[in-house]
Amino acid sequence: MIMRITKGRIMPDFLIRAALAGLGLVMATGPLGCFVLWRRMAYFGDATAHAAILGVALAFATGLPVYAGTLIVAIAMAMTVSALTGRGHAMDTALGVLAHSALAFGLLAVSFLPGVRMDLSAWLFGDILAVAPSDLAWIWGGSALVLGLLVWRWQGLLDATVNEDLAQASGVNPGIERLALTIALALVVAVAIKIVGALLIAALLIIPAATVRGLSRSPEGMAVAAAVAGAVAIVAGLGLSLRLDTPAGPSIVAVAAMLFLLALPMGARR
Amino acid sequence: MMPAQREPLISARGLSVRHGGVTILSDVDFHIHPSEIVTVVGPNGSGKSTLIRALVGLDPAAQGQIMRRDGLRLGYVPQRLSIDPSLPMTVHRFLSLPRRQAAGDIAGVLARVGVEGLEDRPMARLSGGQLQRVLLARALLARPEILVLDEPTQGLDQPGEAAFYRLIEEVRSQTGAAVLMVSHDLHVVMATSDRVICLNGHVCCEGTPQVVSAAPEYRALFGAGTGGALALYRHVHDHAHDGAPGHPHPHDHGHEHGHHDHAYHERADHA
Question: What is the pLDDT of residues A234-256, one digit of tens each?
Fold first, then answer.
């Protein structure tokens, strides 16, 4: 019965677009997710993503493109969190307050918007199957930007990740590298919200990177492998979603999680 | 005297550093010249690391000035380095940060610090002594005019510590790099330094190892009565070549203070 659905048929356009959108996204989330892991910024991704819902509301209220709204709020949130980190605040508390209030205010703002019919669950959980051709341009553009930023600053980013003092003594400015990552993260969140939604973005950053950690011998190898693991999760997740009629975003994350489990023993053997 | 030799690599005047409203260092004057080995000693919490960090530019000065010579090449060895276990990083890759280095240069510098062939070892699997040597190798790859080491032998055993400081001295004599280091280890300080700065929130005393170890301020901080410190003191005098006569009786040190002061001034004139 499962075979009957797809066998012998040409893939429908929406599915091709979904796959293209997902593959574009993981090119950025793979390498960026490695930095999220190395620098223990997982909370950071969560806070930024939750704030993005506020950005969606903002976009609807002002008529801005949704990507622009989420990007603005995500950058504002990322900068706030980054500034607080720099001043040594108790981060988990500050983040808990910021992330969840941003989400709550976002949801409130949405409910106040007159005459706007908005499918909230699409923004919370994503709807990769509804990706339009114009979305593809945003996603690939944003991903390329993030990837370009990472490649451009790779050596400095890596050095500042190993040890900020050592980097600074070698002439690298750790503050600038932190800012570059902050902006990259906000960009990825803005781009990914349509695909996996605000609640699952962090999963796409962390799980593929964590999956390949034990198998990698160099930072560069790990970045590439994380993108590949992400791509496998996208394609297999879409397939799963199609065959079992499950929601696409969670299916992708579920496959990523299964890959992680599969890779665990291989990492442990090394 | 060549004027270039007289210009300090790093100097500070009236330097104060605060952390969160607490003054860690106040009114410190400092200078280090090319090829000099200067060691900062002091009890825990006396601001040794803070001074080093401020001089390198890692901590901001609350007051006063720090001057580093234009384009100064500096090699910094931190107190410790813990790389997140999720970051796969070989020694070779680590030494290629932040600037890529040729494989031959990396092999050469590893051999020089006595850990040849470690290129492919993950950083996480280095022993304490190996890690310190790799950190020194990274500092040397910058072809430094000054090496700055913040308690570089923490976690090493006694022989390892002695070997590490011998290595530092070797590097100094081979490259002519100045060395600025923090140590809690008086033994080493006495044996290898040209000049010692005794710190306790401010500069308590300063001078050649002989001068400082005899200074009442230093003795008040570290205590003169311990056998170890006395043995050390004699040991140093056994090896002193710059005019201070040896004196086997530690009781004499107080009386000799004026004499040592004199030795210090003499030295300062020549510095």
Answer: 999 999 998 999 988 889 999 99
What's the pLDDT score for residue B20? Answer: 81
Do A213 and B88 lie within an 8 Å CB cutoff? yes
Q: Which alpha helices (DSSP H) does chain A contain, by range?
A: 2-6, 13-38, 42-62, 66-86, 91-112, 120-125, 133-152, 154-162, 164-169, 174-192, 201-212, 219-244, 248-269
- The ipTM, to two decimals, is 0.84
Put simply, whether A166 touches B (Cβ < 8 Å) is yes
CATH number of A2-6+15-265: 1.10.3470.10
Nearest CB to A169; choose among B76, B90, B99? B76
The answer to whether residue A9 scores a pLDDT higher than 90 is: no
Q: Would you kindly state where each structural domain of chain B is located, as residue ranges? A: 3-73+144-270
For A192-235, the pLDDT digits (tens) are 888 888 888 889 999 999 999 999 999 999 999 999 999 999 99
What tokens appear for B270 in the block? 């020549």
Q: What is d(CA B203, CA B218) in angstroms, rounded to the nearest whole number?
A: 10
B250 touches chain A (CB under 8 A): no
Dist CA A185 CA A44 (whole Å): 9
| Each residue's pLDDT tens digit, A140-166 | 999 999 999 999 999 999 999 999 999
CATH class of B3-73+144-270: alpha beta
Say whether B146 sits in a helix, a strand or coil.
strand
Helix (H) or strand (E) holding B74: strand B74-77
Say yes or no to pLDDT of B206 above 50: yes
Burial group, residue A42, by CB count within 10 angstroms (0-12, 13-18, 19+) = middle
Cβ A184 vs Cβ A149: under 8 Å: yes
**Residue ranges of the domains in chain A?**
2-6+15-265
Residue in A52, A43, A158 with CA at minimum distance from that of residue A102: A52
Q: Is pLDDT at A261 greater than 80 in this prediction?
A: yes
| Cis upstream peptide for B78 (omega within 30°) | no
Residue A268 has pLDDT above 70, yes or no: no
Nearest CA in chain A to B95: A159
Chain A interface includes B87 (CB < 8 A):
yes
B27-79 pLDDT, tens per residue? 999 999 999 999 998 888 889 999 999 999 999 999 999 999 988 999 999 98
* 3-class state of residue B85 by DSSP: coil
